[in-house]
Amino acid sequence: MKTDTVERALDVSAQSAPGPRRGPGALRRNLWSYLFLVPTVLLFGGFTLWPMVASWWYSFFNWDGVGNPTDWVGLANFREVLGADAFWRAFWHSFAFSLAAIFIEMPLALVLAILLNNSWLRFRNLYRLVLFLPVVATTAVIGIVIAILLDPAGGLVNRVLLDTGLVDRPVNFLGGTSTALPTLLSIDVWKGFGITLIYWLAALQTVPKDLQEAAAIDGAGFWRALRFVTLPVVTPIAIVILLLVFQRSLNTFDLVQAVTEGGPDYATDVVPTYIYRYAFDPSLRAPRYGFASAAGVVFGLLTLAITLLQAPFMKRRMTRSAS
């Protein structure tokens, strides 16, 4: 009898418990919240969503950007992009930036992050600040400074190389077809190093202190603790870092445009500068916005395909680290 009474009391309380209020009253109460979202929605629609949709639409036209597009060409722009050797050369250059970031920048940033994560290191915050400064520096300013430093006619780098006897004549780092791309790759690794370092430092903060202390009590040295404790814990986050670094480096534009503009002889041309040249280069008598839009769509699809190809590998790594 007592049990039945308790159950009925619980049922009554559950029925009378206030639930989430819906309807016009809730909408009025949350009106300010929705209003604060309006600027974000407008900016996302105007500068992200609409350009994506417009690129697809314009890619089917032979359009110079003036007036409304009327010259429908269907898939002709896509066929021209896929058959252009210059596009594939630019795509390979873009992919080279990603390879340099993944195989050079990420490992070096991890090593320094492990070093800077130690509390016994003095002035570690200062070191972090110095390494992060290139990330926040304006790319245009970096381009001007790099061009001055690497100038074959009196640049500081060439003067040092000549004075030390490492070279017998000035090296045209940015003007030679064989040296321009490696030079830009090095500059891009240096500029993006700080943000990758921050990613690794954030990942290292997720390693539980009790695991590290247990490894130390068990007599595990630095390398064994790193191999069996630290790296397995940060592996899931490392996969996310890999994707972030890959996407950032594959879309390198501002550095190339500021330093070499894709030259010399298109030796440093990447897909973003390739698209920019056909859409906005003032030297063209008639810009080809339709062709540039098609190149952008193809580049986006290729980037998506490469990202999806990494999914099985990442899934296996996630499963292995979880087990």
From TrEMBL:
Protein's membrane topology: Multi-pass membrane protein
Name under which the protein is recorded: Sugar ABC transporter permease
Record's subcellular location: Cell membrane
Membership in a protein family: Belongs to the binding-protein-dependent transport system permease family.
Major location category of this protein: membrane
Domain ABC transmembrane type-1: 91-310
One BP annotation, GO: transmembrane transport
Gene Ontology cellular-component terms listed: plasma membrane
Keywords: Cell membrane, Membrane, Transmembrane, Transmembrane helix, Transport
Pfam families: BPD_transp_1
Gene3D superfamilies attached to this UniProt entry: MetI-like (1.10.3720.10)
Membrane-spanning segments: 31-53, 95-117, 129-150, 189-207, 228-246, 289-311
